[in-house]
Amino acid sequence: MSLTAAPSSHAHPTARALGKPQSSGLRVWLIAAVCCTSLGLAHAEDSAFIVASTDTHARAASVQPLAAAEPNAGLQTSAVVGQAADVGSTGMGLLLGAAESNPLGLVTLGLKAVAYQRIKESPPMEQPRLWGMYGALGWGAAANNLCVIAAIATGGGAAVLCPLIGLGAGMGNWSAGTEERDKATFAVICQEAKLKNPDLVCIFNGSNS
Asked: Residues 6 or more apart from 169 whose CB is under 8 A from it?
């Protein structure tokens, strides 16, 4: 959910960033989703993953051994917190007199829950990318909302920049989580490989990005 400052009765509706009208809020977040998907596919091809058999030299190498915990747990937590930040900042903005830039804003509360469940039920290999997108959209929307709240407190003039700030925050969150997503994906690969070879030692050697 994204917020935008509601124009007063004496003011014309403010134009959104990038020359878009206010009603294009939903379009901005759809663009963000497409961008995140494209980046996810690109990094899926570029990631440097290795699986090494039991070897003392491999154990001593300067690499990151994989933990046995649920691979996607950290990504899921970050994504849920991001969506909670969106919901909380949306409510705060509405209380301060902001209006939803997305006319279906409050309805998306239900969509968030549906999306969460769908991601949980997705194949483990797909979940790192999906949690990353879910979280990036939540954090981006929250950044937009907080910008609107700040704009309201200072007269509303800067609200036109908020969608751009939100988009930048979402993409920044996505980019910052690249290695964590790659590591989680590799951990899933390792778990599946160990079903056939329990003695396998899996080592994540970082992402090529």
From this structure: 139, 140, 142, 143, 144
